[in-house]
Amino acid sequence: FISETLLTTCVTVGYNPRVGQYEMTGATNISSVQNRSLGTSRRTAIQLIEAALQQRTVVVTKTIIDPEGNEKKVKDVEATSQAVQAQEALNDLFIEFVRDHHSAAIEPVYNELYNSHVHKTYREPALKTYPGASPTIHLRLHQFRGVERIKEQDTLLAHAVGSGKSFTMITAAMELKRLGLAHKPMIVVQNSTLNDFARAWRTLYPAAIIYVPQPGDLEASNRKRFLQRIATARAAPQQL
Predict the structure, then answer these.
(1) Rounded distance between C-alpha atoms, residue 10 and residue 32, angstroms
(2) pLDDT value of position 44
(3) Neighbours of 33 (CB within 10 A)
(4) pLDDT-based confidence at 234, cuts 50/70/90?
(5) DSSP run (H or E) holding 75
(6) CB neighbour list of residue 161: distance below 8 Å, 6 or more residues apart
(7) Coil, helix or strand for 233?
(8) 147 touches 172 (CB < 8 A)
(9) Could you count the other beta carbons within 10 Å of the beta carbon of residue 201?
(10) What is the pTM (predicted TM-score) of this model?
(11) 3-state DSSP call for residue 203?
(12) How far apart are CA 19 and CA 7, in angstroms?
């Protein structure tokens, strides 16, 4: 790509596994017009390519004189912006080069390494409720899928507000407990939503024994007792 784009044959690129980055030799010997025209007045094209190979952010500095008369290097915002734009343009050229010359060789390798795993999908369950849950509440399909995924792996519930994430988390916690996958599931919520979350839990699982900490539990004088209650599963009656 460098040879064809910058019309040069003096550059050699190699990968150094000891430092985990690409190294370039002969870059200072390029004198082609393309090396200057595809770069900026402060950074040549080969300098931008080398920074991209090493995943370095391009920053152009300038020297100023501070109020005390000392020289100081600061970021040249305009020159840096020009360099970043030029680097992005070179990146686009590289993508086109790969597609035109090497896509047939790269595509099967990419598919084998990164595109061969199909994520598990979950069909709508035959039973609308989980054991112990209220029979009057039926989870929606995306909630069921979230519960099943949580039971198998770390999961991000990137659902919109109002889509039922609370019921998904509550059901998942109860299922982890029921299946023996977790001994004492804990859900951390904001103080402002604590009581609402507790009511949702009691609505979905009326017979569940849960510990909802009160503001006094988190005071310094009660914190030790609060942790002991969590450890021994003994909570005050009004907190169950």
Answers:
(1) 11
(2) 93
(3) 9
(4) low
(5) strand 71-75
(6) none
(7) coil
(8) yes
(9) 21
(10) 0.52
(11) helix
(12) 29
In sequence order, which residues have a C-beta less than 8 Å from that of residue 12 and are 6 or more positions away? 24, 25, 26
User: In the predicted model, is pLDDT for residue 240 greater than 90?
Assistant: no
For tokens 């849950």, name the residue: 133
Written as six digits, the tokens of 123 are 């069909």
The identity of residue 70, as a single letter, is N
DSSP SS3 for 229: helix
Whether 48 and 82 have beta carbons less than 8 Å apart is answered as: no
> Helix H segments across 38-183?
45-53, 77-101, 103-114, 141-152, 165-178
CB 122 within 8 A of CB 149: yes
Angle at 198 between CA 196 and CA 201, to 5 degrees: 110
Structural tokens at position 109? 């390798």
Strand partners, 55: none
